[in-house]
Amino acid sequence: MTQSEFDFINKQKLKVEKDTILRIENLKVTLFQGSKTTNIVEDINLFLAEAKTLALVGESGCGKTITALSILKLLPEPLIKVTGGKILYKGQDLLMLKTKQMRKIRGNKISMIFQEPLTSLNPVFRIGDQVAEVLQVHKGLKKREALSRTVDLLKMVGIPSPEYRIKDYPHQLSGGMRQRVMIAMALACEPDIIIADEPTTALDVTIQAQILELLSFFQKEKRLSLLLITHDLSIVSEIADNVAIMYAGRILEYTDTLTILKEPKSPYTIGLLNSQVRPQKRGQMLTTIKGSVPSIFSLPQGCKFSNRCPNSMDICYKEEPKLKEIKKGHLVRCWLYQ
Questions:
Q1: Number of domains in the chain
Q2: Which of 25, 53, 246, 268 shows its CA 20 to 30 Å from the CA of 324?
Q3: Residue 14's pLDDT is what?
Q4: Beta pairing partners, 332
C-alpha cells in the first residue's frame, strides 16, 4: 500500500472501522504457468461500506471479475491464486478461512450474481430446486418449506406465476427472467453483501433498467452492501455511491460517483466517459479509446495505460505512478498528478 493510501486510511480510520463491511488491502492475484508467474491483479485497495454501492468499472480484461472471485475464494487454484494482501469481511480475513468455513460465508453472508445466468444456472435442474437448495444448505429448511419460500422469492423479484415457474428449466426462461432467478438466489439467505458481475450484460435496455431498479430497490430495502462490476458508466450514475476505475489489474481512480462524473482526473476515466453512446449527428463518428487492453503477458513497463493515453509523457513509459490522493477522498494513479 502506498504512503498516500495509508494517509487516506488514517484520516478516515474511525469511519472505516464503523462503516466498512468489506475491505480489500494490497490484493495481488497471480497466474502460474509452469515456472513462469504473472500478476493479473496487483495493489488493489477497496472499501465497501454498509448499505452502500461500490462500482468497479473497466473494460473486459481489466481484472474486475478476478477481484470478485478472489473475495469468495472461487479462483481456479492452483493455476490462479491470491499471493498477497487481505480481504476483510467484518474484520475477518477471508483468505485465512478453510474451505468448510468459507462455505458458511459464500451464498449465506456474501452472494454473487454471475455475469451469464444461462451458464451459471444448472441446465438439468428446475429453477425452483436450485433456489431451494440454497435455503436447504444454509438455513436447514426442509424441501417443501424451501420451495414455498422460493415461490415467495420469485414473486418478490417480479417473476409472474412463480408457483408454476418453479417447475421450469433455465432454458425455458428469457434472459431477464433468468437474471431475476439469480437475484432471488442471491437474496435467499438475506446476505450482507451482494456481488453483481455485469448483471445487465446481453439484456435489452428496457430489461436492463428493470434489473437495475430491482437491485437498487433491494439494496435500499434490505440495507445490502452491493459491489457492482460493470463497464458502463451510465449504469454507475444510477446506482453507485462510490466508483473504482480499474485497468490492467490496477485501480486508476477512486472517489464518489458525483466526482467521477463531474471531475474525472484519470485519462482512462475521461476516455470511458467520452465513449458513452450519446445522440450523434448523422455520419458523426463515435468517440473511442484507441487500442485495447493489453495482454497480462505484455503489459507496458511504466503506466499500464501509457500506450493508449492521449496525455502520455516520457516518464509514463518508464515508471508506474502510485495511487495518490489529490483531494479528500479522491485518489488517482497518473503522472499528471504526482
A1: 1
A2: 53
A3: 38
A4: 253, 324
